[in-house]
Design brief:
The chain is mainly α. Helices cover about 55% and strands about 10% of the residues. Helix 3 packs antiparallel against helix 4.
Length: about 220
């Protein structure tokens, strides 16, 4: 049996075969010398290859070229599917693709495509996120930290921070949050300051409001 003549077979994993990262499809073919040759691919890629009506190329280079082309197409489709549900940052989309078994090359090219056509826009995401969290009572520092964790720098946001946070409003939000805290009369100043700082308010705002609340309840 010739290695170049043997046909490739697509083997898909069982549906309940573990986490997405560990669930992989496999392209296999027998070798003339015994044993088999295998190529591991994301499940979505395996399904698309299995659905081909004209079969798979016989040579390994041709197969790998097809796998690369199919992986990019599947990664793009997956990004479009994700963004049909809610907005994501480029970092979040990349992490999703990696979690589903896509290699760095396919993921990078798919994310670059999504950015070029406006599907993924970190500045748009960041502006919407910052405004929503400011209205929910988050402080500036917490918003900055959470955006950074999602791969967005506030330097990308036009008008940051003035158009998102008014110093007077931030002080009032901090006061409103602190007023709802139950205090025991022991270390109230430290507790309020720590709570507000943890919610992302600046150190000066947290300390000023903590001092006000501690004095009012003393």
């Amino acid at each position: 049996m010739s290695e170049e003549i043997a046909a490739w077979e697509v083997r898909l994993p069982e549906r309940a075969s573990g986490h997405a990262r560990t669930r992989r499809a496999t392209l296999r073919r027998p070798l003339a010398s015994g044993g088999e040759e295998a190529v591991s691919v994301p499940v979505a890629v395996g399904k698309r290859l299995a659905a081909r009506g004209d079969g798979l190329p016989l040579t390994r280079p041709e197969l790998l070229a097809l796998v690369d082309e199919t992986a990019l197409a599947c990664a793009r489709a997956r990004i479009a599917e994700l963004l049909g549900r809610r907005d994501y940052t480029a970092l979040e989309v990349s992490a999703k693709l990696a979690d589903e078994g896509y290699g760095a090359g396919a993921a990078e090219r798919a994310v670059s495509w999504a950015r070029s056509c406006g599907l993924v826009d970190d500045a748009r995401y960041g502006a919407a996120f910052a405004r929503a969290k400011a209205l929910a009572g988050w402080g500036r520092l917490k918003v900055e930290r959470e955006l950074a964790r999602r791969g967005v720098s506030v330097d990308e946001l036009e008008g940051w921070p003035e158009e998102f946070f008014d110093p007077g409003d931030e002080l009032e939000r901090a006061r409103a949050l602190a007023a709802r805290r139950r205090l025991t009369g022991r270390n109230d100043y430290e507790k309020i300051a720590r709570f507000l700082y943890g919610r992302g308010f600046s150190r000066s705002v947290a300390l000023d409001v903590a001092r006000e609340v501690a004095q009012d309840r003393s």
